[in-house]
Amino acid sequence: MTTTVVIIVAVVLVLAVLGFFLVRGRTGGGQGLRRRFGPEYERTVAEHGGDTKAAEQELAERVKLHGSLHEQPLSPEAREGYAGRWAMVQETFIDSPREAVAEADALLARLARDRGFPDGDSFEEQTAALSVHHAGELDGYRRVHTAVHDHSSTEEMRTALIEARALFDVLLGDTPSDSGRRGRHETKNPHGTENPHQTKNLHGTEGRTTA
């Protein structure tokens, strides 16, 4: 092996090591990824059969691909329109739960797209990007998407729709990210205020009220 080849190989190795530590520095390594992704970290490790190294490599790649994404603002008219459509989803659930979760799934995909995330036509790509910025609120969206394509029970669909509200709220701009502080089962209308005439059957408490 000539001196030139040795030098080239050494340079390549140094660049590879620097690249590794650069990515690791951006993500904070294993502990940084665990803090950033929360439950999503554990879910990814489970998907890789407990292989922590492979899971962390995937999560680091997500950060590399989507970490610089800047969410686009919604106009007041768009926010009001989305809030109204979510209210209709909740009403529809009473008589047609499967239709309601299908609409919720499509609504979240469109809302994420309008905020600047990848188009919902690729669910995996969109959720990968969302996980980098809203990992704490993502599980409900996944549950709704699964409920649309599986033979979920009405109770499973109800729970999925309630949990999906967390991501809807944070994308709509009603709550800060990682908004579990509100409580996963608190009854609010899509504008964040109590509605005395809104049905609460979705939460399994009260029946339909009249104006």
Automatic annotation (TrEMBL):
It comes from the Bacteria. This is Secreted protein. The chain crosses the membrane at residues 6-25. It comes from Streptomyces salyersiae. Residues 173-211 are annotated as: Disordered. Residues 192-211 have a biased composition (Polar residues). The keyword Membrane applies. Keywords: Membrane, Transmembrane, Transmembrane helix.
